[in-house]
Amino acid sequence: MFTRFRQMPATAMAAVLGCALIATAAPAVAKEKPKKEESKKGAEVPVSKGFTPAVKKMIDANTAKDPAALQAALTESQGAATEPGDRYWHGYYTLQLGLLNKDKATQDRGLDAMLDSGVSPADSVAAYNFYSGNFAYGDKNYAKAVQRLEAAQAAGSNEPNLPLLLMDSYLSSNQIDKGVAMAKASIEASRAAGQRPSEELYVRPARALQAAKRTDDLLDILTLRVRDWPQPVVWRNTLYILLQQAGGDKDLNIDVLRLMRATNAMTERGEYLEYAALATEAGYPGEVVSVVKQGIANKVFTEKDERFGPILSSQTDRANADHAALLADASKKPATPKAARATADALVGIGEYAKAIPLYEGVAATDPVAQYRLGVAQALAGQKDAAVASFAKVTGSRARLAKLWTVHVQAPATPAPAPAPAAAPATGG
């Protein structure tokens, strides 16, 4: 289930920020001609002569790990920090005070002062902005989080959580397009690096898109999700949305259910019951028998089930009676294009994919449904390249299904083991 990304705890902040910052060069008195080497490295942030005594007190208090003395030095010098370098060092030691006291609000003020001074060392800007953005995200100040995290990204931050935080900050501030674009870019970057992307990169944008009723964009991100996380439950959640879209189109519904079956995504009794009813009505007894037997094998129900027992009995008799005639029809030239597709559909239902393929090929050019089902038959027959090519030609109401079948066909045979996937958007299914 999606949870908001946790802020970095104070102890980790101290480890990452405190140590790094304490190692930064101590403030230097402003010089008329700074050394070029120091200027290039950003190793110094000059402090004015008038503010130097105050900084000396801060250094001594921080070195002694004396938060009371450091607080006194900061309070005393507050109004005297007028130059950019003075404001930077006042902010720096405000951050140190926050780290000593494990006080997030004080750390946040220090980071703001350092960044707002405009003179933070170039090699520290990414870290300062990231942690400032991290604090803002935790406070649900998403506008500030976006500002700081974008700056961290621009400065070259390689913090692994930055894409997730920035994506969610966009989405939480209703910048959905930016959030989705960030998610997609991060997904592809992870894949390019040979890593499986975090599921949050799909789930959080999906929920935002669902809330905005942007179903096509929702299905785009869910298609990426099943590509990278092809677990049955992920397929099921995605395909239920297509079932809802199909409405009363029974022919389209059965095609969605066929993909659910192919991806092992049928897990509920009701799904098998709907599939069996649609296939019975369409006149595919062999397919009904196969589906019901699969449900029994998967222990979704038993052969003595009050609904499925009678279905299995009656459709087995029909399937046995029709089998020989169906194979005979496959060897004949179809009387009409409609007959060709009907015979091919029935052949697929009994697993005779190779015999169905030429029948579909004969009518695919003028029958969009046959074009789609040609790809399905090829996929089920193990003809992956041919299936992908056929699915690429599909248009209309099955175009989305064709894309999903393509993802399924191109998926690795055995997906790598993975933790339980994050919850998908609610589908009402």
End-to-end separation in angstroms reads: 17 Å
Residue windows where pLDDT falls under 50 for at least 5 positions: 1-43, 414-429
Specify Rg, calculated over alpha carbons: 32 Å
What is the number of domains?
A: 2
Order of helices and strands: HEHEHHHHHHHHHHHHHHHHHHHH
Question: What's the CATH C level of the largest domain?
Answer: Mainly Alpha
CATH fold-level label of the largest domain: Serine Threonine Protein Phosphatase 5, Tetratricopeptide repeat
Number of strands: 2
Q: Reading side by side through the largest sheet, how are the strands ordered?
A: 1-2
Oligomer: single chain
Helix content: 55-70%
The pLDDT mean sits at 86
Number of helices: 22
Using the alpha-carbon principal axes, give the shape. Answer: elongated
Structural class, from helix and strand content?
A: mainly alpha
Q: Which range does the strand content fall in? A: under 5%
Q: What's the main sheet like?
A: 2 strands, parallel
- Going by CATH, the architecture of the largest domain would be Alpha Horseshoe
